[in-house]
Amino acid sequence: MPNLVTTAVGQLYVTTFGSGPVTVFWHSLFVDQRSWELVVAALAPGRRVVLIDAPNHGRSEPIDRDFTIEECATAAVEVLDHLRISEPVDWVGNALGGHVGIVLAATSPARVRSLVTIGTPLDALGLVERWTRIVPLVQAYRLAGPVAPLTRTLEGALLGKDAIAAQPVHARVTMDAFRNANRTAMFRAMTCLMIRRRSVRTLISSITAPTLMLVGAGGQEGWTWEQAAEAVATMSCGSAATVPGAGHLAPLLVDPALVAKQLEAFWAR
Q: Which of 27, 21, 83 lies closest to 52, judged by CA?
């Protein structure tokens, strides 16, 4: 059932279905909840699924002010309260969604039963990457919008050739969220949630919920399995694993059935 839920960061578009333990899915920057379709479809029945479009993404309301990942975590609590979900949830976040989940699990531990991050680096952008690659990309988008060369560059970084080859139709649907986004709103989201994103590394040691960090085996910029393994070693109940695909979103398309199996095995433990 789709629904618009009023939060401190505007009205967020939320889809819910199923019954059982609650699992919340929050997508990556640039895309929307449709990026989860293949993984969710591969899950065994018996879960209540909550899919959320982030502020300024998908069918959520564009807001004309800056906002933070911490505010997104607060908004997630407001969504759960609106849905009358008081029990701890299983949180699954891709890239940006993982950052939101880390903040939520660290600051509101009673709301998170378990945490899964997929393609979520812990540190903020380095100075070289920020000023040589990311700021020029964001400024190019501000000036020209989702023109073909920029969209192809982003598609390659997020999905990679293997994901596009494995799921060409779904790859296009996933990137349509970027192509069709409100331009002013997406520019603000890119600025607030990417360029200004702070490190969440100091938060992970305080997380008590069982945590699984999944990393694309084909590699992604700024985050490797070795880095994830080093990070979870500082946690009370953390583990790391790889999934097929190169790029932050690639695992959701390259082998969604395997991702679903890893989620179910983690929840069963």
A: 27
| Cα dihedral: 145, 167, 27, 186 (round 10) | 0
Q: Quote the domain boundaries for residue 262.
A: 2-268
Task: Select from 58, 119, 102 the least CA-distant residue to 242.
Answer: 119
Residues 39 and 181: their CA atoms lie apart, in Å, by 23
Q: Two tokens at 229?
A: 């393994």
- Any idea which residue has 């920029």 for tokens? 150
Query: Which phi and psi angles does 32 have, rounded to 5°?
Result: -145, -170
Number of H helices and E strands in the chain, helices first, is: 13, 8
Q: Which residues pair with 25 in a beta bridge?
A: 51, 92
CA proximity to 264, closest of 88, 120, 92, 95: 92
**How many folded domains does the chain comprise?**
1
Query: How does pLDDT run across 32-73, given as a tens digit for each residue?
Result: 999 999 999 999 999 999 999 999 999 999 999 999 999 999
> Alpha helix (H) ranges present in 180-239?
183-190, 201-204, 225-232
Structure-token pair, residue 67: 């906002």
Dump pLDDT digits (tens) for 157-178. Answer: 899 999 999 999 999 999 999 9
Q: What is the CATH number of the domain that holds 203?
A: 3.40.50.1820
The pTM of this model reads 0.96
